[in-house]
Amino acid sequence: MIDTRLRRLLSPLLGRPRDRPESFRPRGTSSRVSRLAERYDVEVDAALQRLWPKSRIYHDREFTRDRADFLLVVRGRGVMVETKVKSDPGLFRGSTLPPLLDRLQRDGRRLIVVLNQGDPTPARALVAEKLGDKGCVVVWSGPHHDADLHGAVEALLQQMVRHQ
Q1: Which helix (H) or strand (E) is 3 found in, with range?
Q2: pLDDT tens-digit profile of 106-130?
């Protein structure tokens, strides 16, 4: 009880600086893919900030299969962003996406899956089956793919009607 009260008293004085980006959620393991995924999340976050400097980006602090990694809000409209990392350049089937797709299908939200490498054809079919034109899969591995990422997100944003 003392710790809680002390934290409550000191938190206004020691609050997090606003100029620092929100910290990313810790991954569950220390595997090579998890380390790559953590680094990839940081790179995608930087790309989103670079492409939409006036946007707001919210990070999910927990690792769950049914929630996206980011919420990107541009001009009052939101798009969920899920990052996926493959350690090999093969096919990306999207086997981990169904819980997220089911939830977003119920909620009516838009989703962009950002993949670091590989052929996303099977995952694109899965996303199209579940979300239709409210979802897409883009391969992004650096600034040379910024145009693809920008175009995909803007296409999803154009579909949306702003809620009054």
Answers
A1: helix 2-10
A2: 888 999 999 999 999 999 999 999 9
